[in-house]
Amino acid sequence: MPSLTIYRDRQYLTPESKALSLDFRHTYNAKMEAIMDFQKVKSFFMWCTILNGCLLVFSLIIAITGLDFVYSVHGKLFQIPRESLNETYYLFLGFYKIIWFVFNVVPYMALMIIGKKIASNK
Q1: Under 8 Å CB-to-CB from 45, ≥6 apart: which residues?
Q2: Which of 32-36, 68-72, 104-108 is modeled with the greatest confidence?
Q3: For 15-32, how does the pLDDT look when each residue is reduced to its tens digit (9 = 90+)?
């Protein structure tokens, strides 16, 4: 009696080859979990912190030196008064700084603390 075939990804698989396919998938998942190790996560948060910090500093420089240019562009586009633009830009920078600190700096600092504890336990 012929074995039952299952159509998957344009291939006919027997039950035996399907079991091998599931075993391969398990091995593949284990390898993918090993790829995202602690050092890569720490490196990811380090670069996020650096890049977003640079963007924040760049925005602060623009706010200090080039707010007239920003107003000339946005004032024509949105018809908003100068005082309103100053307040909006100030709120944006404050919100961006809080978000940067909470989602970049704090996780990176936590990973550094965990890394020191892991290194001291070895």
Answers
A1: 104, 107, 108, 111
A2: 104-108
A3: 555 555 555 565 666 655
